[in-house]
Amino acid sequence: MLIHHTSIVSEKEYQKFLLERLEKDNGYIIRKASNFDRYFAVDREILFKFLEDTQHETMDYLRKIYKADLEDTIVSFINAEATKTRGSLLDVLKHGIEISNQKLELMYTKPATTFNPDLTRKYGQNIFSAMEEVWASDKERIDVVIFLNGLAIIAFELKCNAAGQSYQDAIYQFRTDRSPKTRLFMFKAGTLVNFAMDLEEVYMTTKLAGDATFFLPFNMGNGEGVTAGAGNPVFEDKYSVSYMWEDILTKDTILDLISKFIFVETKEKVDDKTGKIKRSENLIFPRYHQLDVIRKVLADVRENRTSQNYLIQHSAGSGKTNSIAWLAHRLTSLHDAENKIIFDNIIIVTDRVVVDRQLQKAIMGMEHKAGLIRVMDDKCNSADLAIALNGNTKIIATTIQKFPYIVDSVKGLENKSFAVIIDEAHSSTAGKDMAAVTMSLGSGDQTEADVEDMISSEIKRNGKQANVSIFAFTATPKPTTIQLFGRLNKHGQREAFHVYSMKQAIEEGFILDVLQNYTEYSTFYQLNKEIEDDPRCKTNAAKRQIARFIELHETNIAQRVEVIVEHFRTTVMQELGGQAKAMVITASRQGAVKYRQAFEEYITKKGYDGIHALVAFSGKVKLPDDDKEYTEASINGFPEDRLTKEFDTDNYQVLLVANKYQTGFDQPKLCAMYVLKKLKGVNAVQTLSRLNRICAPYDKKTFVLDFVNTYEDIKAAFAPYYTTTLLANSVTPNAIYDLEATIDAYALFDPADIEAANDILYSQKVTGKQKQRLTFFLQKSKKLLEHYEYETQRQAVADMRGFVRYYEFLLQVSSFEDTDLHKKYNFISYLLAYINIKHPGGGFNLDGKIKASQFVQKKGEEHLSSDLVAKPVMKLPTAEHFGLTEDKEKRLSEIIDEINSRTGKNYDNDVVVKAMLQIRDILMKSDKLKTSAKNNTQQDFEFSYFDDIDDALIEGLSQNQDFFSMLLSNDEMKRQVLGIFSGEIYKSLRESL
Q1: Relative orientation angle of helices 288-304 and 320-332, to the nearest 10 degrees
Q2: How many CA atoms lie within 13 A of 590 on its CB side?
Q3: Which residue range or ranges hold the Helicase ATP-binding domain (predicted)?
Q4: How does the average pLDDT of the chain come out, rounded?
Q5: Separation of alpha carbons 165 and 788, rounded Å
Q6: C-alpha distances in Å from residue 959, one per residue of 425, 558, 726, 809, 833
Q7: pTM, whole model, 2 decimals?
Q8: Cα-based distances in Å from 214 to 207, 286, 786, 862
Q9: Domains in the chain and their CATH numbers?
């Protein structure tokens, strides 16, 4: 069936289309909205049809007791069970209810084996139905609600892109117009999941909470493997979200999700102030990649039993703990085609010394079976582990350090089959610990050998023992890991079985792009020098600071420490409401000690308060000119195991490390990193990724200043996992003023308003009246923006965003200072948040967003925008294709000679022609110019042509910084050069119509 994107042009048509798919392809019953009982979120008629069809005798028995009240009794009972504090609709569906000692099932799950035909028949009797335009209350009308056996389980708000709306409008609707108190949406008792869906993307939430509702993407990802980004693929003959009705909303998938995936997660946190334990609950619904990996792995294991290994490359921010818990849980009951159980034991191995409690809780949340999981904590020894392996516990969680001890103590295990799930398959998996894993569980004979021999013999046998399957989860697989656990693809290369890429995690807003503000020290130095030489770019206070930085040509420790401390103090410290932290990566343990000494000396000399550093390194260290022995604990003044806790407090801001905390250390407040050692490959990725955690509710920005590596080296290290394209080297301080001029041309803000707004932002305590006043200024600017036609509005917003991002970068990588510009930046940041009211941030509310600090704006949205990857460089056509007659060529040469003599540059014709090709490509996309070319003579066309040129030059800056900056700052030259090509562009535009 061919569907074209134009076939659905309104929300109503989308609704009809979805219901048609559910009815025709998935066997749903379509019901009238008048059948909805809003007080209990149920379709009674369907509920009782299901109960009568599947449990006729029980219903007869109960009818004798309750007579005419039976239906009301059952509905009230289900309601009471679902709404009680420890209850949930999920519980009721999974375990049924008990009335008068009679059990009533409310759904039937798919049996693990085919032994019982009655259960298989009952599974087929589950009734799926859907209604549109459902009134959940007098004020709330929901687009589509889906029911299982009469109970409401899923709600949809649909939006149609062709009608100019998107999933973001649906999210806004859920946040602002849907009450968490309405029975249909009650947390845990109402719908299990709510989807905001347009024709291209899907987002989901399991808990409505007004403005604070948190939506997660439920998209397949767009692209292949490591290059996959956010969103969904585009298909020729169907909608990008067609997987929803083709797969997710099929009866099998929904029943699988309810019975095997969705669970209630309980988190307990000790309140620092009161010392009381605070409990919070969440209903966990898998993200698309989590559902996808579990289903694909299970299908493969069903077919291949224990013959294969699985490498799962999931980035940070992928929800790995839950993915592992789901996998472990599912593998315990997995049967093959002959109905035989595949694994006797599931062993979860982590390289953390204390096995993750979170993991244990997640598994217990899925299945309340006593004895299902045994955690080998610090008190357990290797003998306990051996006993557990020989016993009946299904899931055993342990640390990799325990494995070497059991090689000898486990005997007779070749008759059992094992699934070994490794969390973070890093360093420890390729060494002797890994070899010990395969020896103790393997059914082959093994002779003693050193680590290298063991690994190579493992690889010769494809790293496999016949009765052991290994499932290795990692964000950054090393070559040895890929060799051991990867699969051959059709090109003969080994690769991961399943990928959720760093790129996708960044674009979906789960982690940050740490290469965005990555600056080599030489660039940092160069930028500051440029500012020093340009009277427009700074104030006297900045001048003094820059002068100091520029003297730092010798890179001895004291001078580096000065750069680090001053940069941290002026640029980083105020981030995250003043809680920002930094990490210094030193080259050796001696380095860590010496840098710490220099650090303390410098801050004492300067009298700086509020900056304190800790060190992290292993063992004891002596310095060449010093007999004293140093340890991490002796320098810090407390034991090693307290470091992460102490560093989290406000007492310490900087952590100086030597080969410690460079992997696996999770501290969301880390904003900056100063690198003093060579980083290569996986090590570089893992080290810099310490910065990538988001830190809600703040809009965190990361910063790397690297004294040793080049940006190109680091980019090459990231390339196998994700490649970013923003280069620090393309920034010049002057360009910020060009961008400011572009924004000013829209005339959206009154300078007096900017002044008044900043007075409010920087006042000690902001009153309600002041907030109103601030909102009034923003409203005024928004109205001015709305006077423009839609395309111009979009361009203005894009220009303002560009200005904000560029300015923030400049502030972070240099000692740029301009008070007026900073006030404008503050105003524009708030204005953008105000304009963006429809995005996943709920209604605009200034409470808590006002921070009188250099950078921090509290976030109004949970998802960072996904414009994190700069546009790749355009492929340029060759100069010959541009119609340069001899006459034009001569004129161009004369103009270029004049430019060169005035500016001291040496541009040649080729450079200028290439630049013109870029300009042409940008202008060819302008609808305004197309219209102008169509309706005007060439002479009249030139007026709008020169108007649009500046925008095109700014857009092309990243490709030709130098030449375009020169044209932007010199009107006369711009008209001379670009005048030569206006005819050519006019002709091209007319031809393109």
Answers
A1: 30
A2: 7
A3: 282-500
A4: 79
A5: 20
A6: 40, 38, 12, 18, 29
A7: 0.72
A8: 8, 14, 29, 7
A9: 10-217 (no CATH), 286-507 (3.40.50.300), 518-730 (3.40.50.300), 734-838 (no CATH), 879-992 (no CATH)
